[in-house]
Structures are given as structure tokens and as C-alpha cells.
Amino acid sequence: MLKLKNLAWLALLLPGIVQAQVSEFELDNGLKLIVKEDHRAPVVVSQVWYKVGSSYEYNGITGISHVLEHMMFKGTENLKPNEFSQIIARNGGEQNAFTGRDYTAYFQKLHKDRLEISFKLESDRMRNLVIEPAELMKERDVVAEERRMRTEDDPQALMREHFNATAFMSSPYDHPIIGWMSDIQHYEAEDLRDWYQMWYAPNNATVVVAGDVEPKAVLELAKQYFGPLKPETIAELKPRVEVPQLGIREIKVKAPAELPYLMMGWKVPGAKTVAEENSWEPYALEVLAGILDGGNSARFARELVREQQVATSVGAGNSLFSRLQDLFLVAGTPANGKTIEDLEQAVRDQIERLKQTPVTAEELDRVKTQVVAENVYEKDSVFYQAMQIGMLETIGLDWMVGEQYVDNIKAVTAEQVQAVAKKYFTDDSLTIAELVPLPLDGSPVTNAGDAHVR
Amino acid sequence: MFARVIVFFLTLTSAGVSWAGPEIQHWTTDNKARVFFVPAPELPMVDISVVFDAGAARDGEQPGKAKMTAAMIDEGTKAMSADEIATSFASVGAKFGASSERDMAVFSLRTLTQKQAYEQALETYSKLLSGPAFPKDAFARIQQTMLTGLQAENQSPQAIATRAFYENLYDQHPYGVMPAGNSDSVQQLSPADLQAFYDRYYVSSNAVVVIVGAVDRKQAENIAHRVTSGLATGQPAEKLPEVPLLKQSQHISKSFPSTQTTILMGEVGISRDDPDYFPLYVGNHILGGSGLVSQLSDELREKRGLTYGVYSYFRPMQQKGPYQFALQTRNEKAEEALSVLQDTLKTFIENGPTEEELTAAKQNITGGFALRVDSNSKIADYLAMIGFYDLPLDYLDNFNDKVNAVTVADIKQAFERRVNADTMLTVLVGGETTETE
Known about the structure:
The complex is a heterodimer of chains A (454) and B (437). With 454 residues, chain A is an alpha+beta fold. Chain A is built from 17 helices and eleven strands. In chain A, a hairpin with an 8-residue loop joins strand 9 (311-317) and strand 10 (326-334). Chain B has two domains: 23-228, CATH 3.30.830.10; 250-430, 2-Layer Sandwich (Cytochrome Bc1 Complex, Chain A, domain 1), CATH 3.30.830. In chain B, 46% of the residues lie in helices and 17% in strands. Chain B has 17 helices and eleven strands. Chain B is globular.
């Protein structure tokens, strides 16, 4: 078996990669347009990103960004409900939309000849949406069903909601993207119209086009369709800074389930929120996540799953690209015969080791190699490339930050990984949630579920 | 504005779009493995899959065996431990994957083509496929993981419904076996069982090799040779028995403490080589296969707000796979949703689609052709399908023509003959209607 002692060979790779061309434009009305060329297949991905999401919301209307995303398919001054989808379908397109904490985005995938359809329809619904109360009432029901499916009937998702509401107090990351059920059931058409008016405007949007296109032609098309739209005065967002955490927070969530589940989260800085002098820290945390959970050879799989057999599955994830302060998460299911306490202790031992001992050169190389390789693999998906650009721009970072990702990771040292472990993995900023399974057979709730009391 | 959209769209359609699929190179290795290759020089990477006819349909009396065999492939060879295998892939940034469903067991490798990475990843990958050792310790651990997976199924109404659907639709047929097995069966499996299963089915004459990436024909031949030369030639898997159709309707209701009821309805559908494939595929696209614009979505979601998503699909397999309808709705609406679902299906069987609906469906399917093959990973998936199910090499090239040839009458006849709303299996899993507003 070959042994790779250093990363020198990686440099050899780079000239071989097709360096995709990215062009950036801004229209007079403030709309940003970013075009990434990828000529491998005659397709185009068109995405419109708005700076609005659940972290822009306040209590009482949580989830309104998401329901507005649904209503964007329900008709404009020029189109009947659902006609948007029908036109895209007839043009051989695939389309959908997604709402996050920091963004709302709409996309179409089409044959490259049909980009105009996307621009025509998207520019229309950017300013001309019609919100009919009757349509909204039906859509509230649809979203309530979506919430039941995704959250109410999924014990781990339910726990995650309670976890976030515990970890965050003054930050809008405290509430779910889909919104609380009571809020979902009480949106009025006027609420939606106000929200649309506030955020849906060319100067609050980024259009990302990736695929087999010529940037100049795309720009002309954008001018034609988005150019005439009037900009809006976009209100300055209040900072809503999370108050400093003053000690560990621990909760239990009881729900009908078979398996217990553990989630731990520490407050960490991201690329957007980090102080400038510490700009390397979020990347050191990325590497740290890769040391713990970068595939089957990482410490979690090797030691917690295979050696100690304390977890059936356990994962770690850093939050590099969030608009506001976020969490480094660890979550897992204990192995048969092991308890939540066993798993928590095993995770804590792993964290302690990161603080005490620098990671090995081999592990560091492995993580960096994986990042370089992944960067190549990602280019197989035009959609992903567009997604990365749109997400970065929308949370307020330059898309170039994505291009610099590999270099930023390569620059991380073992000492830096140790330093962020020591600095951020403290109990005072830790939130822990435990899913306590209740019986699934509908039998009366007993204290049996309390077997995991610590 | 709206009128212009329509005009624009008609112009494009009449202009026509070319839709040749990727050019597929095909050959058979000395030891009878069938190879399917598409060069893709743009990115310095290659995707390789080896697909065996070794899914759960081959489990026999030991449900879970095929899946566990696949899960054990990277848990140790005679020369390498699971840790060494994982490190070997990860240290060069390669990704290995194993999966096993009813028909196929699929082993995939994605690696950079940089020589050192490529050589190491390919070497390890080939060794895994040709010499798994099924070590005892790893066996015991994977067994526990599978048992935990079965427990996790019990907290998911969808998983419970899916199991009930397959077990009742297929009864004693091999497709009635859930790939994950059941706890009794998984507990009784032994490493020797897996070794025997491997010896029988993980053989080159039972294998399809798929290669897509930045390699030339000579390199591809070398890959195919290396990944199969350690395999015994063996025999292709036996033909699966034909699937008996349901003779009468069947209704299964399971209580579960959820806010929604999961509804699955369906019947025995079609095989990959079914002569009715295209009329049924296009017809179903209109009925429930086209997301937000399907008839079912219109009736259940758009008009009535009963569900977040409803769909129907044919799942063509070696033998007849299921034709399935699925949705979730709040418990108190389960009956209403089911009856709308049934009515929509009956109306469709009776009347077929309109000409307009058919035209729109054809435009959607054929106009989206380029999207089906716009990445290496999608092309690799198609190659696996074409290879495994013995479809013609020009399957993708002719796909649009076959779709365009379908008429309203074809769809109507095919649905009348093949889809029987009166002998459907219906599974409901959900709670009491006690939700508080």
C-alpha cells in the first residue's frame, strides 16, 4: 500500500482541474448577478436568492419566510396559481425552492436554451406576487402537514427544535425554519403581503446562473427582465446578538421513540461572525470536525463505533457559513447496551484529547486531502456550484470565500486545532439534549422513559 | 407578459432539441463480467461501480443476509483490517460506498485520477471485492447495527407502512423480504452464511462494471480487469420467479402515536422489460409522477390542502416491481385523502389523460432529457441500470422517441389492462384523530 507522507502531490492536481469562470455583475437597481460557466453539459441552473429567512423573523410570525416561499407558486398579476410550475414543467424544467435561516432561494434546472423562461417568470414574481386569502388558507394546511411530517412525527427532529430553542435565547436561531405550529395556523394574507413587500426586491436579491452559458448573454437577459424592476428601501436588520451563555444547559425531550439520541452543541464563530484577527479559527474548527467525523477512518468511526462500540452512529459538524453565531454540533445514538451517559462521556473524552494532544500529522494530511478531493468531486454538480455562490453572497460573504476554502483549510496547523478546542469546547457554552423514548404502542406513559436520568 | 411566455415556449419546441445520450462503450471481460464505460475527461476523477445480482431477492429463508454481506465488504479482508481499509481510501480522498436493495448490491468508488490516489484507491477497492474475510468482531458489531436499524424503523410510520406494504404485496415472493431483514433472522445469521452468499453471488459472471470519468479505453479495460480478476467466474444468479398478482383488495391499518397517517396504496406493477413500460410511465407521470403539476398533487394538495406531498410511481425491477401511491395527511383527514386518491385513480383509468395533458407531459419528459445525464454520477447510475437490466445500449438515445410515440389511447388501454383500482393493497399507519388546534 502506498503511503502519502505529505501534500506535495496535491499541487500536481490543480493544473488539471477545469478552473470554472465566474463573472459578477450588478444591475442599476441593485440586483446582483453571478454567472459560473460549466460547459460539460447543455444545461443551466438558475437560482434567485433573497436575503430573508427564519432568522429575520420574530415571535408570532415564525415560519413566515417559508410559507411565503410556498405562496410564490400561487400566482402573480400575470399568472394563475400553480401556473409557474406548469410552465417550467412544459419546458422540460425541474424547479423548486428552499428556505433556510438566512436565505430563501428559488431555482430552475433547464436546457441551456431556456434560461429566458426562468428569468421571465422569476422577475415577474419578484414584484408582482398576488396573495389570495383563500389560497393562503389552503397553503397554511399544506405547511402544517409539512411540519407534521418533518418534525412532529420525527422524534429526533422534534428534539432538535427544543435543542435550538434552548441553545439560543436572544438570537433568532432559536426558532425553527418551518415555524411553530401555532404561528403557522394564524398567518393572515396581510402578514404575507407585508413580508413580501419588505424583502422581495432586486436590491435584496442575488441571481446565480451556472452551466453552459455565456456571461454577456446572461447579463443582457438579466437586464431585459430584472432591469426594469424598481428597488425597495430595505430595512436594516437589528443585530439580535445572542446573550453570552453563563453555564451548561441540559434538557430532556420525551417523545414516542425506540432509540435514545444525544445532541451536544458548543457556541463557535463562523466565517461571517469571527473577529478579523481570528479569521483562521472557523477553518481550524472545520478541520477539527474532519478529525472527528471525516469519514470511516476518522476518530468517531474508528474509536467510538468500532473500538469502544459505544455508538451505533455519531457525527460532528461545524457551522462555517451562518449569518449569526452558531454551534458546533455532535449527535449520535448509543450502541445497544450502552447508555446516553456512556456516549456523552466518550464524546467528552474525545474533546479532552483534542485539547491535550495535537492531532497527528497523518490525520491532518488526511483531512486536507479529503477537502481537496471533495472540491473536485463537487464540480460534478452544477447545482451545487451555484448553491455555494448564492449561499455565501446571501449571508453577506463574498462568493470568493468559497474559492478560498481549500487554501484556508490547507493553512490550518495542529496547534491551531488544539487552540480552538481549548478555547471553544467549554461547558459554559455547551447545550446538551437527550431524547428520552416513550412507548410507541400508545400505552400510558410511565416512568420507564426516565431510565436514563443522569 | 404571460402571453409572451407561451409564444416563446412554442417556438422552442418546434425548433427541437437534440437528445443523444452519452456514447456508451461496452465489452465483456475474460471472466464474463459485463463492462459499461463512458469517458468524461473534464474533471480529474473517476466513478467506478460494481453491481452484483445479489440483493435481498436472494435472501431466501434468511432475510437481511444480502444487506449484511454488502455491509461487511469493507469490514476486513484477510490482509487488511477495517481501520486500514478506511484509512487507505481516506488518505487519498477516495470515497467508497456499499448498498444493497432487492435486486442489486452496488459497490461504488469515487477517486481522483491523480496517479498515486488512483492506484491506491483502486488497489484497495479490488481487494475488498475479491477477498472479504467477514471477521467475527466486525460481524457482531454490524449485526448490532442492523438490529438498531430495525428498532429505528419502529419509530418511523413511513418505514412501518413500507414494510407492511411489501410483505403483503409480495407475500411469499422473494420481493416480500425487506432488505433490512427482521430481528429474528438477523440474530441467527453467521459469518459462514455471509461467506456462502458471497461465494455464490459475488462472482464475475453475475457482475456489471460501470466506469465514468477521466480515463481512456485502455485504462478502463485495466480497471475492469483489476476489479473483477479476483472474483470467481461462477454463474449468473437464477431467474427470479414471476410475481403473482393480487386477486382481491386488502386493507391494513396499524395504529401509531403520530399526528399524521401514512397512506400507501398499490399493486404489483411492471418489470424493466415490460412492453407497456412507456405508456404506463408517461401515464403515471401525468397522474402522480410529476410533482406539483400531477393530477394527484392538484387534487390533494392544490385544491384541498390535504398533504405536503403525494406521488405515485412504478418501480420496474427484474420481476414486477410495485406500482405505489403514497401520501401523509393529518389523522382526521385520512379517510378523505384516501377516497380522493382512489377517485382520482379511477377517473384516470376510466378516461385516460387529455391530449393537452399528454402533450405537456411529453414536453416535460423530453425537454428535460439533458438534465438526466448532466453529471458523471447520473450517467453512472444510468449505466448501472442499462447493464443490470440488460437494456439496449441506445436506450437513452431512443428514450425521447419512445416517449413521444405514446398516445392517449395507448395510456388508456395500458391502464385499463394493468391497473386495477378494485384489487389494491392499502396500508394506513397513524394515530387517533385527536389533534388539538
